[in-house]
């Protein structure tokens, strides 16, 4: 009988808000990997949204993709084909190499801003296959032995690792009843991001304002306010507008996608799942006017059951087909899930000001361009992006 195999994804994102005047927006370039991550992210987010009872969803599909790519190196042929297709590739070797390179890229970044960690726990009754062990090393995965015959003790070890890697934000993602003595190995991934806004929000300007929730009610939410020249775009195809909030950490940004209609989020997700959002993100340009931005503070936690979600997007064989190349016995996935959170508020905000007086001839005075109103008062979608790779994606609906 094939031994069971557990995959767990943990995602965490937190944001503090100091201000740095010395900011010049970097130029981003689209890559084939970024585009495939985009499409896969939006498919997974829509599926997660559709099955969720709480439509406030946060996820790091990229964390799951990295685990699936690693798992795929030891998977059976049908599973390998499904996962490669979901990851947006046609060639397993090329797709695997892309994620190995991405792992190296993340490993070179400042860990105070972004932590990407993979962990493999192997039952003390088994050992990793040599080829899989070499692949795990390329993914910068730590490998340790663990006694799964004592589920409570094993869960405590895993939870301690999760707690440390997410800085205390995800404490007990694994319970003893999720484990059993026949678990041969468990794969884990953590993506933790803590960024500092380039654009300051002043806590004194936060007000309770109307928000049109997805259930048709109007609720009061603490809403931050900002008046600033921001990167902005309109998408008639998505029937939505986008605004970018850059972080002081180079290469990182949040993108808020606001449907034109109060009830427009489901249609937006439907279109995004078909075509992705990256092409619209890359249309963001300086607004040419002040953007009057109202953005609700939010604090969202999600638990996603990938046993339910993955089959809806064409990935099911990993739960049925034995993987011969992981450990020295065939294994299959028994459980795949992710716990994630996001916090967005003004905590730690600093103020910055630039004051000047310029004298001009009266004849050169021009009426300023009217400000762009970007009032986030309805269900919306958000992304946290590094260069062209989406790290986190979610919805805020109430």
From TrEMBL:
Keywords from the named record: Protease inhibitor, Serine protease inhibitor, Signal
Domain Serpin, first and last residues per copy: 42-397
Name of the protein this chain belongs to: Serpin domain-containing protein
Organism: Chrysodeixis includens (Soybean looper)
GO MF, one example: serine-type endopeptidase inhibitor activity
GO CC annotation: extracellular space
Signal peptide coordinates: 1-16
Origin superkingdom: Eukaryota
Short name of any one Pfam family annotated for the protein: Serpin
Taxon lineage: Eukaryota, Metazoa, Ecdysozoa, Arthropoda, Hexapoda
Family: Belongs to the serpin family.
